[in-house]
């Protein structure tokens, strides 16, 4: 008898084909909106596996509704939407999609750095509103990116990819991590003139950096790690970028800090509560660039993520080696937790 699975969203056909070839498959037939909670709880009653998105909460309630469940294949690097200890306690495997979205997300980080530093969105709005009347020496001046000091908080896969791109801008790189990364340092220093330094004290990184990029996973330790105190340490000309998870930032304190001019500007792809609406206070600030959690959003990368998640799901249910387990055989493993996207 073929295993039964549920897909919580309409996926690219390449991923659907992998699942349907091996499993009896049902799914929520909507690409845009998450499956309603009540529908999800009913749908998983007799399934062996679920392919989930970061919008799907996988917790004790869902596990109780799915007594046959063997695997949850999360279509993301991060899994803060999943109660991992609860899954592990019940012997349910969790998988994720690391590596696939690294370069694409790093590109988006750089889009935010450049747009916030050079006031790209603000300039577009000015023109659209008919506010461009002439050229003048200090009109719409921004901050230089080339030669500026880049501070990366969380130099995992994506943080390292952000650092590699900074070499082309001639930026000295500082990074703060739980541990130094000799491999990253060697990679950066292979380019003549490139400079990188591990900074064990976060405060030092904040005071020295012109651009601060946050790429940490959301954990109990990182939740709310950036607030009024941290923003006050930053330069009045600094640019702050977060493309990890919104709750890493105390959002109200960031808004207050931006109004006070420290940091000078911000680029955000993630928020404390998502989605945000048109009435969100961040949208009242001219020195902020916002994107709707699209770090991995290219056709190629989202398709590849879906294919990897589908491959993980099928492998787990058909006795094949699972490419990307997060927990192993019902036991928590020591894992390299990359920033979620």
From TrEMBL:
Annotated D-isomer specific 2-hydroxyacid dehydrogenase NAD-binding domain residues: 111-295
Name of the protein this chain belongs to: Glyoxylate/hydroxypyruvate reductase B
GO MF annotations in UniProt: glyoxylate reductase (NADPH) activity; hydroxypyruvate reductase (NADH) activity; hydroxypyruvate reductase (NADPH) activity; NAD binding
GO cellular component: cytosol
CDD domains per UniProt: GDH
Catalytic reaction annotation: (R)-glycerate + NADP(+) = 3-hydroxypyruvate + NADPH + H(+); (R)-glycerate + NAD(+) = 3-hydroxypyruvate + NADH + H(+); glycolate + NADP(+) = glyoxylate + NADPH + H(+)
EC number of the protein: 1.1.1.79, 1.1.1.81
Annotated InterPro entries: D-isomer_2-hydroxyacid_DH, D-isomer_2_OHA_DH_cat_dom, D-isomer_DH_CS1, D-isomer_DH_NAD-bd, NAD(P)-bd_dom_sf
Similarity annotation: Belongs to the D-isomer specific 2-hydroxyacid dehydrogenase family. GhrB subfamily.
Keyword terms: Oxidoreductase
Originating species: Roseiflexus castenholzii (strain DSM 13941 / HLO8)
